[in-house]
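Supplementary material to the annual report.
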Amino acid sequence: MKALTIISYQWKDLFRDKWLIGYALIYLVLTDALIRFGGGGPKALMSLSNIMLLFVPLVSLIYGVIYLYQSREFVELLLAQPLDRKSLFAGLYGGLAIPLCLAFVVGAGLPVFYSGAWVQAGWETIFTVFGLGIALSLIFVAIGYLFGLKYFHERVKGFGYALLSWLFLAVLYDGLILLVVSTFSEYPLEKAMIALSIINPIDLARIGVLLNFDISALMGYTGAVFSRFFGSYLGLLVSIGFLMLWVAIPTWQGLRLFDKKDF
Amino acid sequence: MINIQGLSKKFGSLQVLNDLTLNIPSGQATGIVGPNGSGKTTLIKHLLGLVKPDEGSIEINGVHLNGSYEYRKDIGYMPQMAQYPENMKVRELIDFIIKIRGEEPVYESELIELFELGKEMQKPLRTLSGGTKQKVGGLVALMFDPSILILDEPTAGLDPKSSFRFKQWIKREKDRGKTILLTTHIMSEIEELADYLVLLVEGKVRYHGKQSEFILDNEEQRLEGAVAKILEETAA
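Predicted assembly:
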């Protein structure tokens, strides 16, 4: 119950924040422009997905780290009250992750609905794109909190590691996979590739998007392997299942760290 | 009653508290003093459960602080530098703390008047000056009438009038039998508010006893001189 109290007050605080409104507005303008000039429903959602795969993790990660640092003294004050650490962590996490999810869903969702793009795209595509955006927000806020907690008294380090992890997962990772593939091209690599894509949540989300849009030409190596190994439908379910694990593991790790932390 | 037994804490290679044992009976006002880095804030953080000990145990009003948190209902804490969510209004913060503690405040209106916070209640916390934020911290710490008050540099940033009024309030609480722990670098404040003194040096208790006896034993007129004398002796 106390976690819900914290969440409700955090929301009140965050929804007055210009940054959060700005974040939602960026999606609104982007999605509107993609629908107007990008060739209608499915194509616009495909383009939105590509932007989402880079932008949602970056913003969630950075916001997670910064928010924790900004709340440091307030967290200490709350911990001095008769309040257990688990409730406080749940409140802090839900208080940031849910508004970020909402900002994405409302910002990107409004143009999809008022333009009628959802009719062409279909519910399955809408749920996949927005579901993956929500999952990425939840995952990367949790990872941001992990870095923030790990380097609670070393802000530059926490911020730096968060940025590096985004750069690695969003940009460098696919290049490394290609390097592995070209180096070991003589060997059967399918299972290894599936394992490698599972350990990167952005790759998993990308595979989810591509499997949904069924565009094998754009699937990339891991997407193609996923599609061949599982088929489109099962592949999508597997990627969603592992994304849920990706939400659970860093959140649980963050809770453990928060519980043991010296503030 | 605050009972601390063999408390040790290291941050990395730095031994901040070193086998510290201390008994603070109920109803006393105790000033905790010491040079920077002597372990005052770490000791307070241990009492609040913000920091977990490497070794040793703490008992407050008969409750072992082994991951428990309900004991903090008995504590009012005023931090050194109060920082709050920027967009939250003062009124919202007070309501929030009331909900978190799950108890009704006893002195809310009196303290709002004492600190002249009436006009500030609907303002976002980011717009308040440091001193006004400190007053809000005082309001949060004192309004529930807890039996233990932990005050970390409480008058830092307060204007003379608010500082005077605040100290009057603390004296009244002392007379009402509250246990008060106070850290400050302003020795005159310790002289004014505390009967007992804990002098921490390098994470150990160098002195614990009556403040008046400490001054007399060191053949000084004022607490500041006595503390300085001990610290110079220790450094030598």
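Chain A has a mean pLDDT of 88.
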